[in-house]
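Task: sequence design from structure.
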């Protein structure tokens, strides 16, 4: 019996997406019609799940994403929501948010009654719920590669500012071949990758970076 349970757990773990690998393909009905991951080729994508429509924390998150939608688009990044609700529930909720809060939701929301997309992305966490998606966020780059995953519990809303910062940081790392320090914001200095050999470490002091030590150098980006 234990062997069966262990095999099942391993199989489930194998299906979970992994960083720096292609994101799981999907095709799903949304509030903007049929959408596939391949539709976003050439663009970055933030795919995020929420437990249910017509819930207060989720409502604040969707309004937060909507208010910063233009900033995500400026980064060549689209937004795509998901919950295990019908598209009709999504439509009614979107209309309610506009009526009660004066906020329009400009991005699509996936209908995932089958939980197919939620399971492919590991959005279902049995320790939290077997029937609702937790607050999972996936950042997928313009080549369809999964670059970041962030999970929040069902009781606590996400920081939209942090997700926007993360997309900006990832794009900065790609463009300048650097890493970003804790709390990095656009305009801050970035970290130069440390040298990989003794000879390179000896040369680092003369390379023109803001030098603290051979392994810790920064530069403006």
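Answer:
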């Amino acid at each position: 019996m234990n062997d069966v349970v262990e095999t099942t757990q391993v199989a489930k773990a194998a299906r979970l997406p992994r960083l720096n690998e292609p994101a799981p393909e999907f095709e799903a009905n949304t509030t903007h019609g049929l959408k596939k991951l391949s539709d976003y080729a050439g663009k970055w994508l933030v795919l995020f799940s929420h437990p249910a429509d017509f819930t207060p924390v989720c409502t604040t998150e969707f309004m937060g994403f909507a208010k910063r939608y233009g900033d995500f688009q400026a980064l060549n990044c689209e937004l795509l929501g998901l919950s295990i609700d019908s598209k009709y529930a999504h439509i009614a909720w979107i209309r309610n948010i506009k009526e009660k809060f004066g906020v329009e939701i400009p991005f699509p929301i996936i209908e995932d009654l089958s939980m197919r997309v939620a399971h492919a992305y590991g959005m279902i966490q049995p320790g939290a719920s077997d029937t609702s998606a937790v607050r999972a966020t996936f950042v997928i780059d313009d080549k369809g590669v999964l670059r970041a995953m962030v999970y929040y519990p069902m009781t606590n809303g996400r920081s939209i500012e942090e997700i926007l910062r993360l997309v900006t940081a990832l794009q900065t790392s790609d463009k300048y071949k650097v890493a970003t320090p804790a709390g990095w914001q656009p305009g801050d200095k970035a970290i130069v990758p440390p040298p990989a050999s003794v000879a390179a470490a000896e040369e680092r002091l003369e390379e023109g970076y803001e030098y603290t030590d051979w392994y810790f150098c920064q530069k403006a980006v």
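Residues 160-176 form the longest helix (17 residues).
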